[in-house]
Design a protein that fits this description.
Elements (H helix, E strand, L loop, with lengths): L3 E4 L4 H12 L8 E4 L9 H20 L1
Parallel strand pairs: 1-2
């Protein structure tokens, strides 16, 4: 399970800027980023964290192909 940063109330440009800034920091673990949606904003936090971690791992596998 990777650490997760969940963002809400930001525009896409702001989210991308935050992600880029954090990814450029030294000595931090791999972080999974997520933003709230009309669907996931109603989820329990643990369910959202589990889901975004699962999606992150699937995307890593997909991008290796």
């Amino acid at each position: 399970m990777k650490p997760v940063i969940i963002m809400s109330g930001l525009e896409n440009k702001q989210i991308l800027q935050i992600m880029k800034t954090i990814k450029n920091l030294e000595d931090i673990p791999e972080i999974v980023f997520a933003s709230t949606t009309p669907t996931n904003v109603e989820w329990k936090l643990k369910d959202l964290i589990n889901e975004v971690n699962k999606e992150h791992e699937m995307m890593k596998i997909k991008n290796k192909k």
